[in-house]
Write a structure and sequence with these properties.
alpha+beta; 434 Repressor (Amino-terminal Domain); Beta-Lactamase; elongated; MLTR_LBD; Cro/C1-type_HTH; DNA binding
Length: 272
């Protein structure tokens, strides 16, 4: 079954590449006009030359054959064929490899738009990037963290959990959450471990937190999931929320996280 699924994916990949090639004109690809063509699109030979691969190899890609293609070649192919962001993401999904130019494929939303988004939510809400920097948060979220967010020049949730002395008192069942957070963070930054900012943050957490160091060495990887989250506010006491997380369409390495009150979750369930 897996072999059949793999063959279907390669056939779909070949058909997709072929259809995109057919729509790119020689002029768009920077090729001077020459002899008469049957179709307005690029020839296989031209694409192969522009991608610096053999014509045979490229032909096998379009035919859906079982060939091994590096991420760098897929990236060149996406550039040569002038794929849109959505098309490029689809190409790498079908190829089942990571885009080496992942940062260039992301369109960033203006900071004001991110802030307006969380301000419009009637519940504690924030937006995290892949380094767990809090890009935007609302007043309700700042209250949950007892004013910690607004006191930071650039709040980072990992630094709060592992390096701030307040965290074990505010996050209920802190040790269990810390374990889970490390595994979720590892899942988020797998494609960015060679990035200087990522490695710098990891080194800082390893040096400053024995708990982070302990769980990081375990090599556990899990997806971010929802569920009950409890916080012990210094004045308001224990507060319970249901955590809901969405990835941003224009910034897939960022997440919108909402902490919904239990009553609101019940209302949403009733509406369903």
């Amino acid at each position: 079954m897996a072999e059949k699924h793999g063959a279907f994916r390669k056939q779909a990949l070949g058909a997709f590449v072929r259809s995109v090639r057919d729509r790119v004109t020689p002029q768009q690809a920077g090729i001077a006009g020459g002899q008469r063509r049957r179709t307005p699109g690029l020839r296989r030979e031209e694409v192969a030359q522009l991608c610096d691969i053999s014509v045979t190899w490229y032909t096998w890609i379009e035919q859906g054959r079982d060939v091994s293609v590096s991420p760098a070649v897929w990236a060149r192919l996406a550039t040569v064929l002038q794929m849109t962001r959505a098309e490029r993401a689809y190409l790498f999904d079908l190829a089942d490899v990571s885009d080496p130019d992942h940062d260039s494929a992301v369109v960033s939303a203006p900071m004001a738009s991110l802030q307006a988004c969380v301000d419009s939510i009637n519940a504690p809400a924030y937006i995290l990037d892949r380094h767990w920097d809090v890009l935007a948060f609302n007043a309700a979220l700042d209250q949950v963290f007892a004013g910690w967010m607004s006191a930071q020049a650039q709040p980072n949730l990992l630094r709060f959990i592992f390096l701030d002395a307040q965290a074990p008192g505010i996050v209920v069942d802190w040790e269990t959450r810390a374990n889970r957070v490390v595994a979720e963070f590892r899942a988020d930054i797998g494609a960015y471990l060679d990035d200087g900012e990522t490695s710098g943050l990891i080194d800082e957490l390893l040096a400053g937190s024995p708990v982070f160091s302990h769980w990081w060495a375990r090599q556990v990887v899990v997806e971010r999931e929802g569920g009950l989250r409890e916080f012990n506010h210094p004045q308001l006491g224990i507060r319970q929320f249901e955590q809901i997380t969405f990835r941003l369409a224009t910034q897939p390495d960022c997440k919108l996280v909402m902490l919904l009150h239990q009553r609101l979750c019940q209302d949403i369930t009733t509406l369903r």
